[in-house]
């Protein structure tokens, strides 16, 4: 098994482990997924029909409207959200979604450490929102 360590900036504390779902083109903030189930419903999305529930959700940043906070907040309330969030970069929409989701989150990776390119869907990932360490185990 190959292990890879990335170091970003932890912005929401906590430590979790789980299976990665990588969305290199992100997801629409408003209507990209069903907040009651976590199932991605966005037309032509790479993971359409799959649930982001209990995943380590990896995206470059938010896309679309400020619906990110509403949808990720509703997913948290329905216990249908991801276990952790990893963003290449933080922006205002993703920042509010992070605060409302209250799951361990790491953002702002240095050049050459693009999590959307390094982490693969299905990798086992440990996220430390306190230290900003992301440990990837590739099988």
UniProtKB/TrEMBL annotation:
MF terms (GO), sorted A to Z: lyase activity
Keywords from the named record: Lyase
Pfam families according to UniProt: AcnX_swivel_put (PF01989)
Domain Phosphomevalonate dehydratase small subunit-like: 29-106
InterPro entries hit by this protein: PMDh-S-like_dom
Protein name in the entry: Predicted aconitase subunit 2
Higher taxonomy: Bacteria, Bacillati, Bacillota, Tissierellia, Dethiosulfatibacter
């Amino acid at each position: 098994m190959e292990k890879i360590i990335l170091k970003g900036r932890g912005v929401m504390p906590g430590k979790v482990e789980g299976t990665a779902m990588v969305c290199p083109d992100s997801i629409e903030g408003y209507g990209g997924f069903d907040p009651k189930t976590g199932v991605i419903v966005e037309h032509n999305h790479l993971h359409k029909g799959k649930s982001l529930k209990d995943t380590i959700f990896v995206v470059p940043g938010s896309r679309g409207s400020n619906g990110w906070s509403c949808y990720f907040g509703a997913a948290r309330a329905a216990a249908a959200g991801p276990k952790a969030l990893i963003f290449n970069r933080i922006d205002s929409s993703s920042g509010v979604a992070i605060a409302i989701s209250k799951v361990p989150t790491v953002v702002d990776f240095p050049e050459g450490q693009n999590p959307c390119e390094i982490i693969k869907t299905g990798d086992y990932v440990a996220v430390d929102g306190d230290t900003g360490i992301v440990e990837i185990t590739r099988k």
